[in-house]
Design a protein that fits this description.
alpha+beta, disordered N terminus, eight-stranded antiparallel sheet, 10 strands
């Protein structure tokens, strides 16, 4: 009897630990399971087209900022009710991978999301999240999930001091903890020793033919301390031009940019160009 009770206690304990690592409401779990049904059969021989197809199922989903900044401890946040530009891209990639893996389950979705969102694919506190998108690209390239093709399509290497989070500590509640702060500083120091490749804004139109639907687009910026301010997914629309499928702060929802990407970016004063990563 004692052994049975111990086993039950152990199971409960495991369940509690597991739940502490994940923040997911019943409504969001239902949304994930509904999405699994919605996208079933959408796998395309061109993975980029799969990305676009899955991405467009999120059209009109509200833009909501800081959906991952929840509670006092970093958890794997599942939220399909509101997306920011990064969580939109992460979820599209996670669901698209499910189609390729032929593993249409909630648990595999969680595994994909954790792999994509965290350094080396493992949640280990706040600083393990890939906060800077240039590092997000580089780390997911190391995992074999994508390839940074910016240099191949006309981009050039630049160096820039990346320190926005540590110099704006008050904007990030988790950085009130000195341990988190020191780890973020360490990540920034690492990034400052790495060149990043950017396709300059005035070179995008002439190289647009090299960008494919499904490529992940990151908007580089002149803002001090930041590498990227926004991200989305390339989609070649009926006009033959590349547009941006993204969670937009303008319309406050997921949409396809009305203007082609090259023209869309001209209205963003701080934009210096783009980084382009191709899912593999």
């Amino acid at each position: 009897m004692k052994q049975i009770l111990f086993f039950i206690f152990l199971l409960v304990g495991i369940s509690i630990v597991f739940s502490q690592q994940i923040t997911c409401s019943p409504k969001d779990r239902a949304a994930v399971e509904s999405k699994l049904v919605e996208i079933d059969g959408m796998l395309n021989s061109e993975f980029g087209e799969t990305m676009v197809g899955v991405g467009k199922t999120f059209m009109q989903t509200p833009y909501v900022a800081k959906t991952l900044e929840i509670g006092d401890t970093e958890t794997l946040v599942v939220n399909l009710q509101g997306l920011d530009c990064t969580t939109f891209v992460e979820n599209v990639l996670a669901f698209s991978l499910l189609l390729r893996q032929q593993e249409m389950s909630f648990d595999t979705y969680l595994e994909n999301l954790e792999t994509i969102r965290y350094k080396d694919g493992a949640l280990d506190g706040y600083a393990s999240r890939l906060h800077y998108f240039s590092e997000w690209i580089a780390n997911n390239a190391e995992k074999g999930l994508l390839k940074d093709i910016t240099g191949e399509i006309g981009g050039t290497e630049i160096t820039k001091d990346i320190d926005f989070m540590s110099t704006h500590r008050d904007l990030y509640p988790f950085l009130a903890h000195d341990t988190n702060y020191s780890k973020i500083k360490a990540s920034e120091n690492y990034l400052n020793n790495q060149a990043i490749c950017v396709l300059a804004q005035d070179k995008i139109a002439e190289n647009e033919h090299l960008i494919q639907s499904g490529d992940i687009i990151a908007l580089a910026t002149s803002i001090n301390g930041l590498d990227v301010t926004h991200t989305g997914i390339a989609t070649r629309e009926k006009d033959g031009r590349i547009h941006l499928l993204h969670a937009s702060t303008g319309s406050m929802q997921v949409e396809v940019s009305k203007k082609p990407l090259a023209d869309y970016l001209k209205n963003i004063k701080s934009n210096t160009g783009i980084m382009v990563a191709r899912p593999l």
